[in-house]
Amino acid sequence: MSDASRAFLDTAVQHAHIGHAPPFIALQNVGVRFGAVQALQAVTLRIAPGDSVALIGGNGCGKSTLLRVVHGLIAPSAGQVQAPPRAAQAMLFQRPWMLRNSVLNNIAIGLWLRGARWTDAKARALQALRRVQLAPLAGRSARGLSGGQQQRLALARAWAQQPRLLLLDEPTASLDPRAKHEVEALMHEFTHAPAGEGEPPLTMLFASHNLGQVKRLARRVVYLEQGCVLADLRVEDFFNRDVLRAVSPRADLFLKGELL
Ligand SMILES: Nc1ncnc2c1ncn2[C@@H]1O[C@H](COP(=O)(O)OP(=O)(O)OP(=O)(O)O)[C@@H](O)[C@H]1O
Questions:
Q1: Ligand 1 mean position to 64 CA, how many Å?
Q2: What is the ipTM for the molecules in this complex?
Q3: Chain centroid, CA 201 distance in Å
Q4: What is the phi-psi region of residue 55: left when phi exceeds 0, alpha when psi lies from -120 to 50, beta otherwise?
Q5: Which option is the CATH number for 3-96+163-256: 3.40.50.2300, 1.10.357.10, 3.40.50.300, 3.40.50.720?
Q6: Where are the domains of the chain?
Q7: Arithmetic mean of pLDDT, 251-257
């Protein structure tokens, strides 16, 4: 048996294993249609708790739509979606939204709205800011921060709410290399640090065009084309040319930059 076939079988076994564990997220034959555009087509995906999954594919292949379906922002036109409740999820976008308020309050207000006492909300917000090295800027206007600082603040805001699922839509796409590195380091820390005692593991699903980032952060890669999942592999298999060519020639062409 060739190495490629063996690796493929290993993957199949791994996925069969995931199939038996209770899935944290399960999409069954999900379709999304926007008028004449079929943005997702028969997408079936199971994600285990604690996994870190990258969504990749060309522009318009359906990555954002898939994230929005999981977050409950878009109702599928077909199929079923099982995901944790919205309160247990946090979603970050390429350009973070900021309240017209201080850095600290951008976190504290969200916690307060979810029922925390104001003093507790502020204390937790400060703790979250320390985690992303923004505590010295707590009193500044959030909208005056740089793009990289705003994305770190968005991550701190997410972290403060202790989500079980973190969804990120190209979170570093508009950042310079240094800010990209800082945000990526936080994403890694949040998802690869062992969960505290009694805490459920954090699961991450992120869309990215940055293949280096995918290699660094994902344990699993899902490749989409025209709304269909054409490959779903462990990261080491996805970036193994022999395996990828055997499993999905289209994904292999995409990686080589030869897809027309
Ligand atoms: N609200 C909408 N109304 C109409 N069409 C939409 C809408 N949202 C997405 N689409 C279309 O659905 C398809 C999938 O879009 P989506 O944004 O999910 O792709 P993507 O993979 O995230 O793209 P990119 O890498 O460019 O961000 C595209 O053809 C897009 O134009």
A1: 7
A2: 0.98
A3: 14
A4: beta
A5: 3.40.50.300
A6: 3-96+163-256
A7: 92
The pLDDT of 225-238, averaged and rounded, is 97
Beta strands in 17-170 (DSSP E): 25-34, 37-47, 52-56, 78-82, 89-92, 165-169
> Does the CB atom of residue 64 touch ligand 1 within 6 A?
yes
CA distances from 135 to 24, 92, 104, 121, 132 (A): 33, 20, 8, 15, 8
With tokens 């980032």, the residue in question is: 213
Summarize pLDDT for 24-58 with one digit per residue, the tens: 999 999 999 999 999 999 999 999 999 999 999 99
pTM value is 0.89
Pocket test for ligand 1, best of 30, 32, 34 (most atoms within 8 A of CB): 34
62 lines ligand 1 (CB under 6 A): yes
Q: How far apart (Å, rounded) are the C-alpha atoms in residues 229 and 210?
A: 19
247 C-alpha to ligand 1 centroid (Å): 26
Pocket test for ligand 1, best of 43, 64, 71, 174 (most atoms within 8 A of CB): 64
CA 39 / ligand 1 centre spacing (Å): 6
> Is the C-alpha dihedral spanning 65, 71, 77, 81 positive or negative?
positive
